[in-house]
Amino acid sequence: MSDFERIQRCLNKDKAAWDEFVEAYSRLIYSAIHGVLKTSGSRPADLERADEIFQSVFLALIQEDFRKLRSYTGKNG
User: Fold this and answer.
1) Spatial distance between the Cα atoms of 4 and 7, rounded to a whole number of angstroms
2) How far is the C-alpha of 77 from the C-alpha of 62, rounded, in Å?
3) Greatest CA span in the chain, whole angstroms?
4) Which of 25, 16, 31 is nearest to 69 (CA)?
5) What own/partner pairs with CB < 8 Å and gap ≥ 24 does 13-18 have?
6) pLDDT of 19-66, one tens digit each?
7) Residue 54 and residue 31: Cα distance in Å, rounded?
8) 15, exposed or middle or buried, with CB in 10 Å at 0-12, 13-18, 19+?
9) Exposed/middle/buried for 20, CB within 10 Å: 0-12, 13-18, 19+?
10) What number of helices (H) and strands (E) belong to the chain?
11) What is the DSSP string of 40-77?
């Protein structure tokens, strides 16, 4: 299944598709958060906030009936 198809299924409130989406992107998002925190000179205590930020990212995607996820255009294939 393509990313676009998975997102379309998420937008149609398909829980299995959302679970697949989270599974597919969790590692990438978590790594990006850690990378930003490390390069910004954060202390180890700040890095513990990564879990909180991680949850906030996924929450933001589903708020307001998936408003942010709906903005995905797939310009990079």
Assistant:
1) 5
2) 22
3) 41
4) 25
5) 18/62
6) 999 999 999 999 999 888 877 666 666 667 888 899 999 999 999 999
7) 10
8) exposed
9) middle
10) 4, 0
11) TT--HHHHTTHHHHHHHHHHHHHHHHHHHHHT---TT-
Residues ≥6 apart with Cβ < 8 Å to 19: none
Q: Any idea how long the chain is?
A: 77
pLDDT at 25: 93
60 token code pair = 């933001």
Q: Is the pTM of this model over 0.85?
A: no
Report the amino acid identity of residue 8.
Q
Residue 25 CB-half CA count within 13 A: 17
Residues whose CB falls within 8 Å of the CB of residue 71, separated by 6 or more in sequence, listed in order: none
Quick one: tokens of 15? 């829980």
* Cα four-point dihedral sign 48, 53, 41, 23: positive
